[in-house]
User: What shape does this take?
Amino acid sequence: MYKCKICGNELNIIMSFGKMPIANGFISSISDDEFLYDLILCFCPNCFMVQLGETVKPQMMFNDNYHFISSTSKVMAEHFEDMAKEIIDHVSDKKSPFVVEIGCNDGIMLKHIAAQKIKQIGIEPSKNVAQLAKEKGINVIEEFFNLNTAEKIIRDYGKADVICGANVFCHIEDLNSLFAGINLLLKDNGILFFEDPYLLDIIEKTSFDQIYDEHVYYFSGLSISELARRHNMQLADMAHQDVHGGSMRYYIKKDGLGAITDRAKECLSQEKAFGLQKIESYLDFKDKVDRICQDLKTTLAKIKQESNRIAGYGATSKSTTLLNYAQIGPDIIDYISDITPTKINKYTPGTHIPIRSHEFFTADNPPYTLLFAWNHKEEILKKEKEYRKRGGKFITYFPQVSIE
Assistant: This one.
């Protein structure tokens, strides 16, 4: 029996993916020992939070060798530049404004704030990417954010006008400590906004590869509203984002400091209409997941039977869930192309598919390529137009399997 990490209520199990390795745990040798845990998706009928039943210690996922570097995507670079512009506009009338980003990664967003000489601090526990942020002129605290971190920042720098985060809040298991720290650190008229993969998109698209160890939570406006209320804060606005296969940006203010927008009300109405507040709406999720896996394996097996090679594109964290649950290994996927230096010449967690450079992929010119980084599909198809002109075809699998 699992208990809700937010309210302590008993959780309902949506589905189990079985034993999984660390999603970003790319290994140097197939003989390396790998940590395994039970990947189980659950729902809280009390506070509506969808979450993992079993979690992995943060230090096992976010450490000196963290493999996710935000700046490798041009689309994400543009997205975070736009986010920075929004923050700069928001603080334009503030005297000596102060911005805090929780989970700043390599400084892809905060560098634009620093360039405007706005006081800023990034919180980043993974030392290798924190160093990249520091090289961009960003002030970085190398630790996990909690109430103690908030007290330290207030003592040294004062309270914040804006606290933000992107694709990080869903990683933090102790959200109650996080929000307690934010409430303390945020000025009375300040604003918190953060974005993460959106639960409604995941359920509608059956994009189950978004479910892995780093993503402890799968947020909706309904669950975030409940979480904010527990900490004397309120959901003020919501704005859907196209990145990461569908994300939602949530705007939070201190309680009583403004009415909820019509846009947010509409989002909440859509969530209620879909049924994100009741377990019955999730009960067919496993059947949809299994159908996609079977369709994909059938498609790949047919291609292999015709003596065709299949490469992968993007050694993503998401692909760990797909490959291990669907049991797709190096007998089907010859290798995966990636541009992240720390991943090249390593092997995928659990399934041990070799990872090769993009240069290797270009020279090899495989006839078929399984697109694991499907959330960057538009950007990748433009980048690989020459590969496609030479006859190369991409295979995608959400919302259904297709070849183009």
Observations:
- The longest strand covers residues 186-197.
- The chain has two domains: 70-282, 287-403.
- Residues 285-305 form the longest helix (21 residues).
